Amino acid sequence: MTTANKDKKNILPSVSVRFCGDSGDGMQLTGSHFTDEVALAGNDFATAPDFPAEIRAPRGTTFGVSGYQVQFSSSEIHTPGDLVNAMVAMNPAGFKTNLEYVEPGGIVIVNADEFNKSNFKKCGYEEGYNPLDDEIINAKYKICRVPMSRLTRESLASDSDDVSVKDIDRCRNMFALGIVSWLYSREIDSTIERLQNYFGKVKNKPEIAELNEKAIKAGYYFGETAEFFPSQYEVAPAKLKSGEYRRISGNEAIVLGLTVAATKVEKPIVYASYPITPASEVLHGLARLKQFGIRTFQAEDEIAAVMVAIGASFAGDIGVTGTSGPGLALKSEAIGLAVMMELPLIVVNVQRAGPATGMPTKTEQSDLLQTMFGRPGECPVIVVSASSPGNCFHMAIEAVRLSMRAMCPVIFLSEGGLGNAAEPWLIPDISKIPKIEVTHPVATEEEFLPYLRDEETGARPWATPGTPGLEHRVGGLEKQDGTGDVSYDHDNHALMTKYRAEKIQKLQDVIPDLEVEGSGDTLILGWGGTRGSILTAASMLKERGIEVATAHLHYINPLPKNLGHILKSFDKVIMPEMNSGQLRMLLRSEFLVDIAGIQNHCGRSFFAEELTDEIESILNGGTA
Question: Long-range contacts made by residues 2-10, C-beta under 8 angstroms, separation at least 24?
Fold first, then answer.
């Protein structure tokens, strides 16, 4: 290969890259640093971290594989990509479990030093078989064998007593990052600066910072001088809306949204939760923001957590709790208590694949029916849903606003695929976000009626304890209309049941109408984290000569006021969901319209290509 060929760069519209290896190989850190590099280069991007469920599976086994995928582009994108253009596999287990996601002809960079008999056995390859020698694999992919372990040790050889072989081996991921950074023309200076700051200043280990810097440079120069790659590739910056951007994950956006909501209500937030994947990062993020009046509490279990949040709301603060599907089930009776007491409460549910423990690090949308009906009695709650990592910020504020207005619990549905994923986020002007008005009653000469309802909202007054003259009864027993006394009267129970439902329906007057994008006789309707796949599929269908319209639901209870009209105005409605068709069932029952469903139960988001094919099949007469 000549130097002239090496200097040639191929310009690509978009690239998708996946890093995979043992959970101790630093794949999440590697992918995160690479994402920062593409963000600083001005590309649009979308990520998909993939965590193992086991805390520490035996090294080299398929159960312990950790992955991180990122797509970056010169135009707007909505997904981390279906098949990847390049993959880095740090061991045979990562190679085996992720090779199917590489496009034919794609580049596969492996740490050849780890491809040995011992590791082949650990991940289930037959004795005597080396996948790197497989003729079919070599014909389908460009396999690049790089002895990363050896090259990392050679490049970081040092006489310093402060550096161990273990420290050096931990830098293999930075060597791999250097190779990929060179391959796709990404600058590594920003990564080096962050490594120096974190290890040198925060951790006070400048020798570790120096090791990582040497490793990433060694990998970069290896890519530049090795004969593995025919050329470098480059993706031009994207033309995004002007403004200041930052990389944000869904869980980080929830943290910032709740914090902003607290400033707009001018009340402190009390966030109480019990650690659970994939919602724990919300607790961690809020715990770092005490300066904004955020108080966090790690409870001994899910029930205690939601009860602390209810107590905070009773006291006049913003009570918030967070969990995933199994924890939501444990909180159900207490959520019913908040419905009966008619107190604001925000429950963040970052959904994961079930049932039971299921696949705790994989994403799904299967908690919807539990969210709507998983409590004793007629027990309605407000339900909102986020559609992208950045949208989690807006919907967190909406959850607080609606809960305060209706004096009712809100269940805010996110998903593991949103909570862990990241995208570029245009930082909003906080001053333009309207205040959330809250009033507390004061004592007057008239009798205080704690369940006297506001005519506009249907909500009862939020009387804080300790206010003279506003003493009232609370608890889980049925309330007498107006006085709030315990009541077993049949007609009163029917009336209060009606009131608790009506105040949620009144919110239709203050939530936005559903917006339809595009045109055609077919509507692709989605909710939650399917939005990116749906928008990409709509674009792919257009390239095939098929026009479809799209719409996305962020408000599920209540539904937008114009939804029924929209559903009946299309010849065909198709709803993709990462469950068995839960919202589709509710909409068909509510509006008596036929909706075709596309289901996904595999614990990951829809691939845009497969969704496009399924939609086209339905339009051509296939069954849903």
Answer: 5/230, 5/231, 6/224, 6/231, 6/232, 8/231, 8/232, 9/185, 9/231, 9/232, 9/233, 9/234, 10/231, 10/232, 10/233, 10/234
Name beta bridge partners: 382. 410
In tens, the pLDDT along 59-94 reads 999 999 999 999 999 999 999 999 999 999 999 999
125 with 268, same domain: the answer is no
Cα–Cα distances in angstroms (integers) from residue 11 to residues 157, 184, 224, 376, in the given order: 37, 10, 17, 59
Cβ–Cβ under 8 Å, residues 425 and 393: yes
- Residue 201's pLDDT band, with cuts at 50, 70 and 90, is confident
Pairing of strands 382-385, 555-557: antiparallel
CA dihedral of residues 438, 442, 447, 448 (deg, nearest 10): 40
467 and 323, same structural domain? yes
Q: What is the CA radius of gyration of the chain?
A: 27
pTM of the model: 0.95
Determine contact, residues 613/536, Cβ cutoff 8 Å: no
* 624 is a domain residue: no
> What confidence score (pLDDT) does residue 5 get?
46
User: What residue has token string 């400048």?
Assistant: 206
Mean pLDDT of 583-611: 97
Q: To the nearest whole percent, how much of the chain has pLDDT over 70?
A: 98
* Eight-state DSSP code of residue 288: T
Q: What is the CATH number of the domain that holds 349?
A: 3.40.50.970
Rounded Cα–Cα distance for residues 146 and 622 (Å): 47
CA dist list (Å): 461 to 477, 493, 591: 18, 19, 34
- The CATH number linked to 576 is 3.40.50.920
What pLDDT is attached to residue 4?
A: 39
Domain range enclosing 395: 242-509
Of the residues 184, 214, 235, the one at which a domain ends: 235
- Split into its structural domains, the chain has a count of 3
- Contact predicate 46/250, CB 8 Å: no
Statement to judge: residues 214 and 295 lie in one domain:
no
Decide: 232 and 183 in contact? Cβ < 8 Å: yes
Give the pLDDT of residue 7.
58
Instruction: Kindly indicate the confidence band of residue 230, based on its pLDDT and cuts at 50, 70 and 90.
Output: confident
